[in-house]
UniProtKB/TrEMBL annotation:
UniProt-listed Gene3D superfamilies: SMI1/KNR4-like
SUPFAM superfamilies in the cross-refs: SMI1/KNR4-like (SSF160631)
Highest taxon in the source lineage: Bacteria
Protein name in UniProt: Knr4/Smi1-like domain-containing protein
InterPro entries, A to Z: Knr4/Smi1-like_dom, Knr4/Smi1-like_sf
Short name of one Pfam family: SMI1_KNR4
Location of the Knr4/Smi1-like domain: 18-137
Length: 180
């Protein structure tokens, strides 16, 4: 079976990586203090996993892929001098999710071309008071359901990825089989 894990009511898809304590120690040394406990717990539970959910930011659903502990170790030292936000996820289109020193989750949303109908302006948004609230606000929208199903529907019925997608969608998106 394709690896999935549940954490705080959300399904994460593998592959998962074991957390290397050296990665966490290096990140915390660069930050000058410990990671917030909730964020550390998330890394330890689903390091390297992907959550196929979106979050509403400024009226737009955005999906972010969380960085693994090893990726954090590479990203944190790249912050501009004096920057206090730690990058924790990216959307693949220039938008980034950050963790503030006080645990708040903040997003930089990259402006898009006018033809998309979305805001052309770059903007910062406070998303949640902490990582737990961020996870609680995640939702599965129909665009994501459709993309996941398109990725799996032509596979053999016994394919591990198809089974994982169907199981996930059955549990998380009531009536998806009738819509897609």
């Amino acid at each position: 079976m394709y690896p999935t894990r549940r954490y705080r009511g959300r399904t994460f898809f593998g592959p998962f990586e074991p957390v290397d304590p050296a990665d966490l120690a290096a990140v915390e040394a660069d930050l000058g203090g410990p990671l917030p406990p909730g964020y550390r717990a998330l890394l330890e539970a689903v390091n390297g996993g992907t959550a196929h959910y979106t979050i509403d930011i400024g009226g737009e659903p955005l999906g972010f892929e969380l960085f693994s502990a090893a990726a954090l170790r590479r990203e944190v030292p790249r912050r501009p001098p004096g920057a206090d936000l730690m990058p924790i996820a990216a959307d693949g289109g220039g938008s980034l999710l950050f963790l503030a020193p006080d645990g708040r989750v903040v997003a930089f949303v990259h402006g898009l071309p006018a033809w998309t109908g979305r805001s052309p302006q770059d903007a910062m948004h406070e998303v949640a008071g902490d990582i737990e609230q961020y996870l609680d606000r995640l939702a599965l929208d129909d665009d994501t359901v459709e993309l996941l199903w398109q990725d799996a529907e032509d596979l053999e019925p016994d394919d591990e990825w198809r089974i994982a997608v169907e199981t996930f969608l059955d549990a998380e998106s009531q009536g998806w089989r009738n819509r897609f």
